[in-house]
Amino acid sequence: MIKQIFGKLPRKPSKSSHNDSNGDGGVHGNSSPGPNSFNNSKPGSASSKSSSSSRLNNDPLNSHSSSSNKSNHGKKTAPLAIQAGPVLASGDYEALPSFRDVPNSEKQNLFLRKLGMCYVVFDFSDPSKNLKEKDIKRQMLLELVDYVSSVSTKFNEVAMQEIARMVAANLFRTFPSPNHDSKIIETYDAEDEEPAMDPAWPHLQIVYELLLRFVVSPETDAKLAKRYMDHPFVLKLLDLFDSDDQREREYLKTILHRIYGKFMVQRPFIRKAINNIFYRFIFETEKHNGIAELLEILGSIINGFALPLKEEHKLFLVRALIPLHKPKCVSMYHQQLSYCITQFVEKDFKLADTVVRGLLKYWPVTNSSKEVMFLGELEEVLEATQAAEFQRCMLPLFRQIGRCLNSLHFQVAERALFLWNNDHIRNLITQNRTVILPIIFPALERNMRHHWNPAVQSLTLNVRKIFLDADQALFDECLARFQEDEAKGKDMQEKRELIWKRLEDVAASKAVSDEAVLVSGSISSIVIDTSPTPKATTGQ
């Protein structure tokens, strides 16, 4: 019986094939697990085992590979990626004994044999192909997850190596390129967009779960495991963030964050690798599916930065995070980006001026919905801003806010006026009213007199009252200056209209003749030149 079982196992790959399976690249990271990480119970505990199996068994996609394809009916199917692992060459793929059926002394060997059989990657583009083998592999993967979650002895190097190789064979793949040649999208509506479903997810999910359980396991020695969770391994994990399948990106987010927390030696490289993804996205492609998830990881990492902030981290803010406001599809990840930016200001309030000027640099001109998002982020930043930094940026800031106040898009004007509802911002404005009120007073007056939206007019009156109550003398001075400027502007407009009327009259009276009509530099007079038109001269 034992001979028959061993005869059916795939042969152990050669040393050279193992070295190639690690791929290429490198990475580094820092901090505790993120808010969306799985439960923090020990993998060996009963609660951890039950949570692990319940996540897998409760997912309808994992009930069976064939039923999974039925459940995808009516949903967008992600294009099949090019797989890195070996593909089944023969039908000789039989189940191995369960861990319950072998003595403890044999479980380690059985674990390695099951990992070896799971190197095989099946073709999920045809739902009717290899149904039996797919189910056998799925059951083995589930058993491997349970084993990793409940093991009570340290993983040795052989086990770590085989886990890394099996994970690489199943997960590391190249996504089809047409996805990146598509037109850059400006907005994203989760309700209109059909979720992409990877047909191989019934196996992929369990492999991700196994990797997660291995990384968080107390039986995983980080000093040994870092040889296999190395730079090439982590870089290939980062490449997978571009997956169309959101479920995959969620797993990747949790796993990468756990790797960042456990393998301290990897931290600087992970940050650098994420930087490079952002640079390519901002300055080259403007297309990547995983920017929101990467920013979510970074939000937790930034929260764990030690003070004072390193120059490297400040450069990351200036060179990567602030320019992420530039792409047209910023709405897809703006919430996570805003959180990261605010974390930096809360860590070091002196960065507020840098952040505000960065926002003004990328302030949208024609995209009103994007402008509303910027105003919301601006409020969060100003809430963490101290008086000295506020004074450094208030001139350009309130010139822009004044333009927002006069926006014909009522949501933009309304969102700008809502800034005065924030007590901290209102106090900063009141303390610097002698500079700010002259800048925005014309916008407030025009809103009150001419804005088409009643809600905007009402909010404008409230803001005017705040300034009036704070300093009536300054308010009256600004009002007098505004009325004076209005009168001058009205006179200038009347003079322009008079000139145009005279020009029209002269043009109408001389329309039939060939005489030239010249206008003098004086605003008040028009001189008619009746002399013959001079001929052009050359060679002078």
From TrEMBL:
Gene3D superfamilies: Leucine-rich Repeat Variant (1.25.10.10). Residues 29-71 have a biased composition (Low complexity). GO terms for molecular function: protein phosphatase regulator activity. Residues 1-76 are annotated as: Disordered. GO terms for cellular component: cytoplasm; protein phosphatase type 2A complex. One of its GO terms (biological process) is signal transduction. It is found in: Cytoplasm. InterPro entries: ARM-like, ARM-type_fold, PP2A_B56. Keywords: Cytoplasm. Pfam families: B56. The B regulatory subunit might modulate substrate selectivity and catalytic activity, and also might direct the localization of the catalytic enzyme to a particular subcellular compartment. Belongs to the phosphatase 2A regulatory subunit B56 family. PANTHER family: SERINE/THREONINE PROTEIN PHOSPHATASE 2A PP2A REGULATORY SUBUNIT B, SERINE_THREONINE PROTEIN PHOSPHATASE 2A 59 KDA REGULATORY SUBUNIT B' ZETA ISOFORM. This is Serine/threonine protein phosphatase 2A regulatory subunit.
